[in-house]
Amino acid sequence: MKSVNSLRSGIYEDDSVTRQVNRENVLLLGGGRALLMQLAHPKVALGVDEHSDFRTHPIRRLRRTIRMTMAIVFGDRETALSAARAVNRAHADVRGSDYEALDPDLLLWVHATLVDSALVTYETFVKRLPAGERESFYQESKVIGRLLGIPADRFPPTLPDFASYVETVMSEGPVRVSSRARELATQVLRPRLRLLPRPAMMPLEIVTAGLLPETLRTQYGLAWGPRRQLLFRAAVRTLPHMVALTPAVLRVWPRPGRAVSLGGLRTS
After folding, report:
1. How many domains does the chain have?
2. I want to staple 232 with a disulfide (CB 3.0 to 4.6 A). Which of 77, 170, 210, 211 is the partner?
3. d(Cα 42, Cα 29) in Å, to the nearest integer?
4. Which domain, by its residues, includes 83?
């Protein structure tokens, strides 16, 4: 019989690089990047468009992804496994004439966008990780990937192999921004928010464009002139200092050792 401690322990230790990176609130700035990278795969864009309310409520997908990721990363073992099962059940019903969400290739791409975006955003706005920790973050990410249905042999073996995979699928296919993806991207960059006019999202649009790989930024047709580049560089210079000076109570979530509720999923 499992001990209480083993049942309450999560799939990641509290001092793991996965928890170190994912507890930073500033990672939310990379959410738009991850979504645009996902939509750049035509089959992902088609599945999202046909099986969700993305066009009217684009933030919901990002919110669900964050909630499930936090439950898996910071929850106790049962919470993590329950969250993974919920994601897998939802994906089981997503299929069309030319795609299905449980296709290992699509699962790997979506997973890759989250891993790559987390690393890029953390190292842009928090601090650069040592090479060993970057590799550990990637290796640890395979745990989530396997829980979400990616066969172990589909993962690139090392972080350099992973980086090569991401670059190859963007430069040689199948990832290629379609007209559908460009339409959906408008909802990511300037969503309709009840209390905010669309122009108020401009700073987030600039950050998203700046974080996005150049090849996808070009394919999406995102404006990237001298003024926007200057504003993005200013954010890159300023935000890490602000993050470093922000008290942990505001900077990270969840706070270590504190139980929280994530959509009915208890974490500790």
Report:
1. 1
2. 210
3. 24
4. 4-267
